[in-house]
Amino acid sequence: MSNDLAKETIATIEQALEEKQSTAINEIIQIIQELAAKAFSISVPELSQLIGRDPTITEKVISASNTIGFNPNGAPILTITEAIHTVGFEKIRNLAISILLVENAGHRLNSYEHREMAAMSVCSGLMAQKLIDKLPGKLDPELVFVCASLRNYGKLLMTTFLIDKYREARALAKRLEDDDEAFRQVFGLTPLRLGQILLQSTTLPTPIMVSLKSVPREVLAKAVEKTDEQVLVVSEMSVRLCETSFDESIDPDRFNKAIRDVLQKFEKSFPVDLETINQALIDIDTDMQIFNRAVGMSDMSSPSSHKIRARVNGESLPKRPENTPAKTKSSPIPSAKISEEEKEIQAEEKHENAVRKISEVKEPGSSVNLEEIYTTVVTAIQAGLDLESCMIFLKEDFDDTNYSARYGQGLLFKKIRNRPLISTRNKDVFSISIARKEDILIQDINAGKIKSVIPEWISIFSDTNSFIVLPIAVENNVFAIILGTISSGESIELGRKDLKRLKQLRAHLAELKELVDDQTVTVAKR
User: Fold this and answer.
1) CATH 3.30.450.40 residue ranges in the chain?
2) For the chain, is the Cβ count within 10 Å smaller at the N or the C terminus?
């Protein structure tokens, strides 16, 4: 019966993949399969072409590549090829996988279990990278990332195409206290075996295929010295540690004991102490912030970030939601046109909300969430000027001549997020605005000689027709730049009330910046 069940499970998933019942998971699986299968043979041009064929993924990979975590030297990266040469071939490969998984982990249309499994895949890979320093010899951190993350591949498929049966298996596992047996009874095979079978057709390199096997008892009973055994053990340990970290039934008081129980199972093959794991969780939390920022997701919307942050802080995990079917997209309901008077009322409300939020955190000793503040300001300006895109560029810590779009809304922002596109070294409208500390409004980028000072990326990434540049300075130093854009042949128009609101918001932001620099208020950790 188990054999028949296994065949049925495999056939169902293969058919779903062939019919592309889930565009998102097909995209992830296709990239994972192709990148993993060619992990040691794919060329730079091939990798560039593979990632670059999807503009959305390309933008996010480039965005993350420009962060200090991947690009500490701060050399501007504008293409996948540049990213590969600057950051490294294997890192960009795994960055593409991470971003695809993180994006799926935050997508509200996916089931909670699928989002959790996508997040766990990334965290397992990151955990493996943190642990290999404890092993003798020198393992490739990019190899162990792929191996550890792919050990969750079977569950990723189950939570995508067979979610009800997956929930049934989880419930049975609690009663039997045996996960593998529960999945065999419901699916006919374990998730690990399912992933191994379906990845065989991708002709994965031997080191990766070996890492997808179960860990033999004899391997756990000795110190591992062979490379393939080390990769297998560290991958399995990383998955188990992340499963424990994600387990809502383990309260903060019992968490360290639960981690020790996992470590005890590997103490002969791979001894690791509790302090190492706790530090690894802190590092993973930082890494996930980079990925979340790249895909435009708040940390609280990410199952991994929310849970890892709670573990780091010794807090209870958020409760698992009730089992409900994954949401499906519905046709958007066209919004009724609103009058100019109603627009003005809404603009004023959003402006007052932004001013109130900034004022609340300016009291001495307050803690300020800069992401929340800047996002609120962007929302107010976007509503007030009826903009398509609005964003705030902040000066880079590692290079004070560059500014990157850190917070914002709209299509243009999504495409250029985290890219250091504004620089005082350039001779364009932005450097002019920074040098003079003056606002600049371009109502038509094609008018007269204006086009000569418009940076090329404006046209590359958008159909912008009109835009406004608003520098924000403290003591003659421009620390931030607001950019608002509109397309479709329209022009940005500024009324007296608009000018007043913009002046007030920037004055508040400048004052807040001074308070942060003087440490009168502190920046809350994300």
Assistant:
1) 347-523
2) N
Rounded Cα distance between 96 and 56, Å, is 11
Q: Which CATH number fits domain 347-523: 3.30.450.40, 3.90.190.10, 1.10.10.10, 3.40.50.2300?
A: 3.30.450.40
Query: Please, where in the chain does CATH 1.10.3210.10 lie?
Result: 2-310
Please report the DSSP string for 83-138 in residue order: HHHHH-HHHHHHHHHHHHHHHHHT-TTS-HHHHHHHHHHHHHHHHHHHHGGGSSS-
Quote the CA–CA distance of 288 and 209 in Å, as a whole number.
26
Q: How far apart are CA 263 and CA 65, in angstroms?
A: 34
Judge whether 524 and 371 are in contact, CB under 8 Å. Answer: no
C-alpha angle 301-296-512 in degrees, rounded to nearest 5: 90
Residues in the chain: 526
Q: Which two tokens stand for residue 381?
A: 């300006």
Return left, alpha or beta for 296; rule: phi > 0 is left, psi -120 to 50 is alpha, else beta: left
Tokens 């922002």 sit on residue: 413
Mind listing the pLDDT tens digit of every residue in the chain (526 residues)?
Answer: 458 899 999 999 888 877 755 545 555 556 666 655 555 566 667 766 666 666 666 777 777 777 756 666 667 777 777 777 777 766 777 777 777 777 666 665 577 888 888 889 889 999 999 998 777 668 888 889 888 988 998 998 898 889 999 999 999 998 998 999 999 999 999 999 998 888 877 666 777 888 889 999 999 999 888 889 999 999 999 999 999 999 999 999 999 999 999 999 999 999 999 999 999 999 998 888 877 776 666 656 666 677 888 898 888 887 777 654 444 433 333 444 456 777 788 888 899 989 998 998 888 888 888 988 999 999 999 989 989 999 999 998 777 889 999 999 988 998 888 888 999 999 899 999 999 999 999 988 877 778 889 998 888 888 898 999 999 999 889 999 999 999 877 889 888 899 999 999 999 999 999 999 888 988 875 4
φ, ψ for residue 438 (rounded to 5)? -120, 150
Terminal CA-CA length for the chain: 50
- Would you list the DSSP string of 190-203? -HHHHHHHHHHTTT
Strands 477-486 and 466-474: antiparallel
263 contacts 134 by C-beta, under 8 angstroms: no
**Contact at 8 Å (CB) between 119 and 102?**
yes
Return the C-alpha torsion angle 77, 78, 79, 82, nearest 10: -30
- Rama region for 410: left / alpha / beta (φ>0; ψ in -120 to 50; rest): left
How distant, in Å, are the alpha carbons of 186, 266, 288, 474 from that of 98? Answer: 30, 27, 9, 38
Which residue's structure tokens are 């560039």? Answer: 48
Query: How many Å apart are CA 231 and CA 356, to the nearest integer?
Result: 53
At 318, the amino acid letter reads: P
